TrEMBL record:
This is V-type proton ATPase subunit H. The keyword Heme does not apply. V-ATPase is a heteromultimeric enzyme made up of two complexes: the ATP-hydrolytic V1 complex and the proton translocation V0 complex. It comes from the Eukaryota. GO terms for molecular function: proton-transporting ATPase activity, rotational mechanism. InterPro entries: ARM-like, ARM-type_fold, ATPase_V1-cplx_hsu, ATPase_V1-cplx_hsu_C, ATPase_V1-cplx_hsu_C_sf. Residues 356-474 form the ATPase V1 complex subunit H C-terminal domain. Keywords: Hydrogen ion transport, Ion transport, Transport. It holds the Pfam family V-ATPase_H_N. The keyword Ion transport applies. GO terms for cellular component: fungal-type vacuole membrane; vacuolar proton-transporting V-type ATPase, V1 domain. Belongs to the V-ATPase H subunit family. Subunit of the V1 complex of vacuolar(H+)-ATPase (V-ATPase), a multisubunit enzyme composed of a peripheral complex (V1) that hydrolyzes ATP and a membrane integral complex (V0) that translocates protons. V-ATPase is responsible for acidifying and maintaining the pH of intracellular compartments.
Amino acid sequence: MSLDPPSYLGSLQNNIRARPIPWEGAVRAGNITDDHLKKIKAVDKVRKEQRIQTIKTDLAGYTTLLAGGSQSKSVLESASRRTDIVQYILVLASDLIQDVPELADSLVSHPEPYKPFLPFLHSSNNAEDPIPLLTSTFLTALVSHSLVTSSKPAPRDAEALPQLYTYLSTLTKNSDSGLQDIGVQGFSELLRKKHAREIFWKHRKETLDPLIETLRTAAGTKDSSGNSVAGNNTRSIEPGLAGGVGLQLLYRVLLVIWQLTFESELIGEDLQENYEIIQLYTQLLRLSPKEKTTRLLLATLFNLCDSNRSILLPVAVFVRLPALLTNLAGRHLVDPDLLEDLNGLSTMLDEYTKTQTTFDQYAAEVQSGHLRWSPPHKNPTFWKENARRILDESNGALPKKLAEILSKDWENDKQVLAIACNDVGQLVKELPERRAQLERAGLKTRVMELMADKDETVRWESLRAVGEWLRYTFDG
C-alpha cells in the first residue's frame, strides 16, 4: 500500500536540491575527489532519462560513490565535515535509488551498503536536524528494498533495523505532526517482512508505545494529565477524534499496527494484556471518521481475534463490540475489504456468543482488565455455582488477574477497586478452605491496604472482604 510522502519531508528535500554547492572548492579542499565530482555532475540536475542511462552504464561506479570500495571512501565519508555536501548527497542518493532500482539492487549486494550512512543517524540529538532525518529517509528506502528482494533475512538488515527504529521512534514522539508523519510512514515501509516485524515487536517499548499513545489520545481515553482512563467508559467522549490527532496521522498509525498483526498469533495476547487493544480499537471504531480508517480498524480486529479467539473474543463481547458491528452493518458502506472483515468478525462473534455462559461473561470481564458492576458481582447464586471454577480454571488465571487489577491505583475509576474487593470477599465466603490460594496471590494483603483508601466505596468493600477472612479465621 503506497502512501504519499509527508509534505514536511518533500519541502525540506526541495529546499536542499535548490541550494548551490561549491563543488570545485570542495575538491580543492580535499572534501571530495575528482572522481566523486564527475559522477555527481553526470547525474545532478539532468533529465531523468539521462540520469537513468548514466547510472545503468556504470552501476559499479555509483555503488562505490555511495557505499565506498576496497580502495576508496564513499563520498559521504570523504565529505563528512561538510554539512552542506552531506545534506545534498543524502537527498541525491534517495533520488537515485528511487529513479534507478538497479542501483538499489547493486547497493544491497555490496558487502556493507549501510556503513557510510548509519553514523549520520546518530549525528545529532536535535529532532529538526536535517542530516539524521535525510539519512533515515535514504536508509528506510534502501533497507525496505533489501527486505523485499532478499529471499532470507540478511545480517545487514538485522543490524540496521534496530538503529532505524530507534531514530524513527524519536520522530513519532515529537510534538511536530510533520515529524510524526515521517516516523510513522518509515515504520510502515519497513514492516514488509516477518523478521522486520519481529524486530519491531522486540523493541516495542520504543517503537509501539508512542503509537498506542497517539491512538489513546485520538480515542479520548487519556485525561488532561496524559493518564489512561477507563477503556469502556465512553459516554463522556464527544464524537470525532480527540486530542487534535489528524486524520492522516491516525491512518498511518493504524496501518502500522495492521501490518504488525500479520504476526497476531504471536503478539495478540500481549497486545491485549499490555495495551488493552480490543477496548481501544472498539472505541476508535465508534469514532472512526472515514471508511478508510474503519477498514483498517476492522482488519486489525479480525486478524487479532481470529488468531486469539479464546483470549480476545470474550473481551470483545464484554466491550459490546457485537452491537457496534451490527450498527456498522446498517450503514451504507461500499469498500469490499471492509465489508468482508465486518462480516467475518460478526460471524466469529455470533458463533462465540451462542455458546457463552454467565461464567464466560464474568471471565471475559476480568480478563479485560477493567471491571464494572455487571450482574454477576452481586448475584449470590452466581458465586455459589461458579466460585470453585473461578479459582480452578486455567490454573487459577482469574484470581491472578484480580490481583493484577487490584495492584493498580485506578485514580480515574475507583469503582474497579471496589468491585474487585467485592469479588475477593465472595470467593472467601463461598470457599473459605481456599483462603491460602488467595493469600499467595497477594489478594489479602492488598485488600487490607485498601481499607485506608480515600474512596468511601473502596473502603466499604475492602472492609467487607476482610470481614469474611476474619470470620472464617475465628470460626476455624
